[in-house]
Amino acid sequence: MSEKQSLGETKLNVDQTKADLENHAKLEAGEPAQCADERSRMGGHEALQPTRLYKRRWLIVFLFSTYSLCNSYQWIQYGIINNIFMKFYKVDAFTIDWMSMIYMLTYIPFIFPVTWLLDKKGLRVVAVVATAFNCAGTWIKVASARPNLFAVTLLGQFACSFAQVFILGMPSRIASVWFGSGEVSTACSIGVFGNQLGIAIGFLVPPILVPNVDDMDELAHHISIMFYITAGVATVLFILVVFLFQERPELPPTQAQATARSIPPEQYSYIASICRLLRNWPFILLIITYGLNVGCFYAVSTLLNRMIIEHYPGEEVNAGRIGLTIVIAGMVGSLICGVWLDKTKTYKQTTLAVYFMSLVGMIIYAATLNLGHLWVVFVTAGALGFFMTGYLPLGFEFAVELTYPESEGTSSGLLNCSAQVFGIIFTICQGKIIDFYGTRAGNIFLCVFLVIGTIMTGFIKSDLRRQNANLSAKAAAAEEQKSEQDYGATALISQAQTPPYQA
């Protein structure tokens, strides 16, 4: 394709996005078409609003990442020492699996009320509520460190899972509200980074703090220590959020965010926004493909201890280290993908490539798990994690591009809802397949769905609305500057040609 054709297509996309934004604003505000036409004849472009980047944005995303870490750590802290908690609470493996799956199940019914709250009340209210429930859940668990109090520890885990509903949809919203167009993907990756680091710590720390001992009193002591440490951290984070977390900067960071702010809250319809998203076919495809990929990650993480112990008995600590390897590699992948997106804006190409490599990683992991060499499992698990976990921020940012100017929290919420649904289905099904047919059959089951997801990703239309909105704003600014320069030059020429007696 020639450079001229490429420039022509870019201009067409920019004009189309501008028209879509104007139609969206008219629908939200109930503006008659003739008023819009009149405004268009009178002014052409809207006046550009002032924007600014604040240093505080890094504190906000770091604080969010930290309390997201504390919450996600607790998701896997039971599953990674599945056999120890089965012995302590005298329950079966499937019951302990539900200590992880409750995070997924709780998300599904509460996501729509929570995203509505995020749209109506903003980031600060949601952040405070999230850390409050997370803190409460950790202290409930402190009271549950006795063999006959499984119901209490389940209640504490439910409180933490409810807090997660307020957390998962926030990275892309924080990135859009606080960060410039050249750093939103990196900021979103940092937000997801905290969640991934928490999962990594959840794989690593419980097997170290809670050894597999037979004395129930000693085991209760170790479990209690683990719960107290978590509760102390959660309490400190709750206090920090209350005093330091800010709703949004005084001035928007980008023209795209300024446009999103310009819609009056009383004219915003949450139901209408959901309906528009569900009519957006590229986004619907992304919802399904995101759910398939992340659902596979949830299943592998939840059942990792069972898979490792089956082939390498007594290796609970190494099972945790393998889980750590998966997530640490994924964190590196997330940051690399975020920086890459900010530099190239190749959302679909990058998403498709990472999805395909997730499939390749899953196939290799499934084929090598039973070879009898733990170092091989570490290598293959790391490769799987680099791409599968690294896919998380890609999905968030691609969704924001496809759905702008809709709320980032709503689009992220729908993605996560899909992930939770597929996560529950895959975890239950893979667990049953492992029980009857072994780990290889269970992993092949996941590979089949990753093949489907890769094919569907190839059919997603790359409609980068947010990027086109920023390009439109830059074009308007350049046109305005050119007009001012032309006007100034004309004025100087006129003044030079005016006779002295008329001056």
From TrEMBL:
The keyword rRNA processing does not apply. Keywords: Cell membrane, Endoplasmic reticulum, Membrane, Mitochondrion, Transmembrane, Transmembrane helix, Transport. One of its GO terms (cellular component) is endoplasmic reticulum membrane. PROSITE patterns: MFS. GO terms for molecular function: choline transmembrane transporter activity; heme binding; heme transmembrane transporter activity. It catalyses: choline(out) = choline(in); ethanolamine(in) = ethanolamine(out); heme b(in) = heme b(out). It is found in: Cell membrane; Endoplasmic reticulum membrane; Mitochondrion membrane. GO terms for biological process: heme export. InterPro entries: FLVCR1-2_SLC49-like, MFS, MFS_dom, MFS_trans_sf. The chain crosses the membrane at residues 58-76, 96-118, 125-143, 149-172, 184-205, 225-245, 281-300, 320-340, 352-368, 374-394, 414-434, 440-460. It is a multi-pass membrane protein. It holds the Pfam family MFS_1. Residues 60-465 form the Major facilitator superfamily (MFS) profile domain. Belongs to the major facilitator superfamily. Feline leukemia virus subgroup C receptor (TC 2.A.1.28.1) family. Choline uniporter that specifically mediates choline uptake at the blood-brain-barrier. Responsible for the majority of choline uptake across the blood-brain-barrier from the circulation into the brain. Choline, a nutrient critical for brain development, is a precursor of phosphatidylcholine, as well as betaine. Also mediates transport of ethanolamine. Choline and ethanolamine transport is not coupled with proton transport and is exclusively driven by the choline gradient across the plasma membrane. Also acts as a heme b transporter. PANTHER family: HEME TRANSPORTER FLVCR2 (PTHR10924:SF3), MAJOR FACILITATOR SUPERFAMILY PROTEIN-RELATED (PTHR10924). This is Major facilitator superfamily (MFS) profile domain-containing protein. It comes from Anabas testudineus.
